[in-house]
Amino acid sequence: MSTPSEKYAVFRSDQEHPAVREFRALYDFKLDDFQLRACAALEDGHQVLVAAPTGSGKTLVGEFAVHLALQRGQKCFYTTPIKALSNQKYADLVSRYGADKVGLLTGDNSINSEAPIVVMTTEVLRNMLYAASSTLLGLSYVVMDEVHYLADRARGAVWEEVLIHLPDSVSVVSLSATVSNAEEFGDWLETVRGNTVVVLEEKRPVPLFQHVMVGKRLHDLFAGEAPTARVGAPSKSGNPAKANQVDLKDLVNPQLVRIARDDNRIFRDDSRKPRRRRDLPKGRPTRTHFTPYRSDVVEELDAGALLPAIYFIFSRKGCEDAMMQCLRSGLRLTKPSERDEIKRVLAERTADLPDEDLGVLGYHDFAEALSRGIAAHHAGLLSAFKEVVEELFARGLIKVVFATETLALGINMPARTVVLEKLSKWNGEAHVDITPGEYTQLTGRAGRRGIDVEGHAVVLWQPGFDPRAVAGLASTRTYPLRSSFSPSYNMAVNLVRQVGRTRARDMLELSFAQFQSDQAVVGLARQVQRNTEALEGYKESIDCHLGDFLEYAALRRRIGDRESSGSKARKQDRRVEAQESIEKLRIGDIIRIPAGRSAGWALVLDAGMRSEREGPRPTVLTLDRQVRKLSMIDFPTPVEAISTLRVPKKFNPRNPQQRRELAQVLRNRTDMLGEDGPPSRTRGRDVVTHADDPELQEMRAQLRAHPCHGCSDREDHARWAERYFRLDRENRDVQRKIEQRTNTIARQFDRVCQVLDALHYLDGDKTTEAGDRLSRIYTELDLVAAECLRQGVFDDLNVPELAACLAALVYEARSKDEPTSPRLPRGDVRQALERMGAIWRDLSALERDMRVDFLRSMDLGFCWPAFRWASGASLAEVLYESDLAAGDFVRWVKQLIDLTEQVADAAGDTALRRTARRVVEEIRRGVISYASMIE
User: Fold this and answer.
1) Which of the ends of the chain has fewer CB neighbours closer than 10 A, N or C?
2) What is the gyration radius of the CA atoms in the chain, in angstroms?
3) 526 phi and psi, to 5 degrees?
4) pLDDT category, 820, cuts 50, 70, 90?
């Protein structure tokens, strides 16, 4: 029961924040303190950054911004990183406020776009800002959900563009996952957007318990209470164990440590070659701990009342295989009434899918798995199927979902348990361990607020498993937000066209990337200040009553440097001479090796190929019958052929008898030459010494004449002077680092503009006609597309041919192992692709000259599927010929539609525009048309 003081505090808050009071009344549960603080700050006119764990309810603050806009007769945009989230949020807001007040804008859909509340992807808002869309009129609030997505390497810059370019009159609500540098991000928002209140919530709404499944048995990861199960916010260090001065080895369940030790001891193998079981010695103990089967894991979770669960497998094929394994095992997790409801929802949501496509889409296995409460969810799955899975799982009808990590991104699908099959994943180039941030993001789905008392994270036992490493992942909460911002060609022309080059440069200096770089400069600047103070102290110790000792010490250093450089130059000259002499050797030359373990007489068997790094490497036969490959180390001085000896054509250096016979002939010949051989032409050359350097002699004379040369404390002063010079050099290095980190984004922007100037896309502070076309194209290969437009590469292509060529500008293979010579259409397409390749190579060369690197290579892997689909081929034919997953095919076609519409817009009133629009009409059919309706 609340105390009188608490009741009074609530009364005062309600009086000061009537909108929050009214909003709070809409919910049948009590709002958390962090939610109330964020809403109150927003009502007070502040901008807000909310950083809170997954499932804590931070989106409620975004919904308050919607409520506030409607109450005040203003407009609010709600942005999300992916279309699935936009659709989900659109449905939520429509159910609360009605379809007449809520709109949706994605790349595919435009529903009620002038409504007071519009849900959209972040890219749509960015494009609206650059186009100065009239839809922005009256905008007062923007909610940026999943704003931590600005760290994404491919798309993160869009979030910063929006935050920088939104009008000052717009209040921004930024919703982020828990990051360890939320205060730094808030400071940047304060700089860019003005008064910003940072609201941090680090306590999970539901405690999370960590487990490891060994075989069919579930073990607790921690000996006592898991750090994630504790009540209260974590420490500032980001590691609860470290904050309490507790070693992880003391936290980990000792039984798991013992299992890991025994398991590693049984199967330890120091050799690189793996052993087979039958090769193991008799009587050797066998493995008693194993990775459980996926169906067994689900059965154990079901038996322990730990379902529903999300089972993360970092492989699309693995997710599909897991679903099929559960089907084959006869696993059934649903009741008859649940099965009936699942079938009804599935039939309703997929009614518009063409019947002829159901078989190739794997519909029947998918439907059977759903009826049993089992599903797969990954990027290769058809969007309609993914939405069915998401809806049924949210309703508790699906009991286990096998998913890739994409499910962890924002989609509201909480579970009681999260299972991680492995702690490593393929990132497109190599298998890498997941980070603490990724572990927290994935396991953050466990524990449904208002439903579960506790959540559970389960990691499966694997060979070589280290429970301490898992405990470190589960305990560490240090995952900072790092900007991925860099100016692109499209961004540059849009900014210059709107505000001019100088103002655009200044605006880019406001990026979070530059802010973080400048923050690092602060520490370096402090170091410079400390070094400068120390240098002043050194000067006092160096002070000499006879004269300027720093001047004297600098002269001494110049003399030392001159002597050192002279020695290095002479050494280099000798090396060059030695290398040239070795290159002159021929087979049969008798030489005397001057140094190394093979020093002495030798016969050249092979002059050797010259290596850029190591120089020539001749092969020789020594008097002790050894065949050696020599290197420059063996020749500190030049070498010359003393005599020659014929080497038999059929001489085999691996034959001991032949080596012995040839070595004996060599010995007889060298005995005739004497111990040292005849006088060398290189012997007795004049050696250049310091005495031959007049400049060095002049500096030595100046040193002797300097007043400080006679100081009795000269050497003591000299030691302090050396310290001074070392610290001064270090200080200059730090200052150079500061210069390099300052204005880094602006320098990048300048180089981008240099590329655009060279290609005549910019003319001072204005864009040319070509620049205007580029401003309408939003793709990684934007400049390639714009150049193709300018050079007329697409002008004479028909519909399927244009689709094939544009596909090369959007597609990017998931794996580098995909075929490098994909199937291509014949005729004009190949010629056009060759011209596109030439344009890409020319632009890449220009980028190298300007020291930028934005244009990835074109990928022709989707040209044939796009050509066939635009030609009217069926889905079954295209998928069979391309080996693409249905969901991937749909996703790439939708991206192709986006680019084609941009090309049509940029082409102006030309035949190309009409062809591009026909491409969109031809490829937006069947399953693509259905996907566009629901996304």
Assistant:
1) N
2) 36
3) -65, -40
4) low
Q: What is the mean pLDDT of the chain?
A: 82
Q: Which residue has the tokens 């295209």?
A: 878
Q: Please state the φ and ψ torsions of residue 837, each to the nearest 5 degrees.
A: -65, -40
Place of tokens 């599935």: 346
**Strand pairing class (139-144; 455-460):** unpaired
Residues 6 or more apart in contact with residue 50 via CB below 8 angstroms: 34, 38, 58, 61, 173, 174, 175, 176, 199, 201
Under DSSP, is residue 54 helix (H, G, I), strand (E, B) or coil?
Answer: coil
On the question of a cis peptide bond just before residue 234, with omega within 30 degrees of 0, the verdict is: no
Report, as an integer, the average pLDDT of 685-712. Answer: 72
Backbone angles phi, psi at 479, to 5 degrees: -140, 90
Nearest of 599, 600, 620, 607 to residue 579 by alpha carbon: 607
* 714's tokens: 């000269």
The answer to whether the Cα torsion of 526, 528, 529, 533 is positive or negative is: positive
Q: What pLDDT does residue 64 have?
A: 92
Model confidence at 145: pLDDT above 50: yes
Phi and psi at 118, nearest 5°, equal -130, 125
Check: CB of residue 437 under 8 Å from CB of residue 462: no
Is residue 127 over pLDDT 60? yes
Mean pLDDT, rounded, for 668-689: 59
Token pair of 72 as six digits: 């005040």
| pLDDT grade for 868, boundaries at 50, 70 and 90 | very high
CA angle (686 as vertex; 681, 687 as ends), nearest 5: 115
What separation in angstroms does the CA of 387 have from each of 350, 376, 449?
Answer: 10, 12, 22
CB contact burial 707-746 (16+ within 10 A = b; e otherwise) = ebeebeebeebbebbebbbebbeebeeeeeebeebebbbb
Q: Which residues pair with 199 in a beta bridge?
A: 50
Q: Identify the pLDDT of residue 927.
A: 81
